[in-house]
């Protein structure tokens, strides 16, 4: 008979569960730091694993992909009362723009990617890699949009996929034109207002547009 704590197997199972929860929390905390510093689209699961000091396999044990990790990170922030999912999305988008404006290395890489890369010959594989990264980024943003809709921060009749496509294209388009001609506008100064303009537009979607958005994106 076992008293004061149960059998050894039960104690081991309880400890294993606690360790798994601690690892999950460490991954989520690391994801918040990495997404803030690198931007969601440019951050990889390898970056998160390194920041959390766990293996990439440990991340996949807890989360299916970056989108699910991002959504879990927002849910943790909500439970802690730190912020709401719309603010998480807004901050992530702002960080992408601000990092480009402040970091000359990031600016150079974006210039190469947008304006000095022909996806032919040996570079064809680069296009495939970027396309996969784009799909993953889109899924991550869509998770965030859906979280906002559940919380009532964005209209429930909004098409989450279309909104995510718009957000990704909007930020990417800003970067494309700014990298081409940085003197045309002050990106660092206007980054927050540019992001807020998009999300305010989603929040105040007219009734007719809401009906139209009910159709699924291809």
Name of the CATH superfamily: Tetracycline Repressor, domain 2
Give the second-level CATH assignment, the architecture.
Orthogonal Bundle
- The number of E-state strands comes to 0
Structure class: mainly alpha
> What is the mean pLDDT?
82
In terms of DSSP E residues, the strand content is under 5%
| Helicity, as a percent range | over 70%
Overall, the morphology is globular
Radius of gyration: 20 Å
Distance between the termini: 62 Å
User: Which ranges are low-confidence, i.e. pLDDT below 50, for 5 or more consecutive residues?
Assistant: none
Question: How are helices and strands ordered from N to C?
Answer: HHHHHHHHHH
Biggest sheet architecture: none
What is the count of helical runs?
10
Q: What layout of secondary structure does this protein have?
A:
Elements: H1 8-38, H2 45-52, H3 56-62, H4 66-79, H5 85-102, H6 104-115, H7 124-150, H8 160-180, H9 187-203, H10 207-213
Helix pairs in contact: 1-2, 1-4, 1-5, 4-7, 5-6, 5-7, 5-9, 6-8, 7-8, 8-9
